[in-house]
Task: structure prediction
Amino acid sequence: MRWEEILAGNVTTLDELSASIPQINEYGDIASKVLNKYPMSIPRYYLSLVNPDDANDPIRKMCIPSFLEMDLAGTFDTSGESSNTKLQGLQHKYPQTVLMLSTNRCAMYCRYCFRKRMVGSTESEIADNLDDIFAYIKEHTEITNVLISGGDSFLLENEQIEKYLSALCEIDHLNYIRFGTKTPIVLPKRITEDKELLDILKKYSAKKQIYVHTQFNHPSEITEKSTAAVKCLINAGVMIKNQAVLLKGVNDD
Result:
């Protein structure tokens, strides 16, 4: 199966989830309220890593809705992204770095996501005029790197990924290009079984250094499949960095 077909089979409803996690039915209407506000999408591979008999399973905490999500404390814009947005889909917070919101889609909707305001729902913050964005980057010569994020930037079609790389590799003052993605962990076949993607990354790695920032948060996520995905990226000339999120009950011990 292609990765798009695997993604289409994600668990997105309570009925589907209860087949793997029967205890979810105990929460009834409360669970429905959470999903009405914050959508759920879990690849079946990643769901298979959950111990259904452990309510405190760390993988469960990262992918299965928590009813504490209805707590209204805090802010939806936790890192002040709105004040650093220069063009729709382009943030310039630090002088040397710009961040592009390339998509509102993810292979899995992490329950701790600090962009829950947009992921899986609105496209109002997504980059909609790439020519203007590339022009902004060219004009600001202090920028040395671009982070293509979202959502998950590897949920873009290969043609779109190449469009980003082709344009950015022509900007002399950029030293490297970064992608933010959790696909090696939650949808490894996006990488291991997509030779076209790997060929694109290898082609442009010869022009600019490409980094992938992924997000392993717990040892249970390190499997043969996720390891194989990382190795494929390394073999394509990509540098891999891990940005773990400090999460209570997951990796704070």
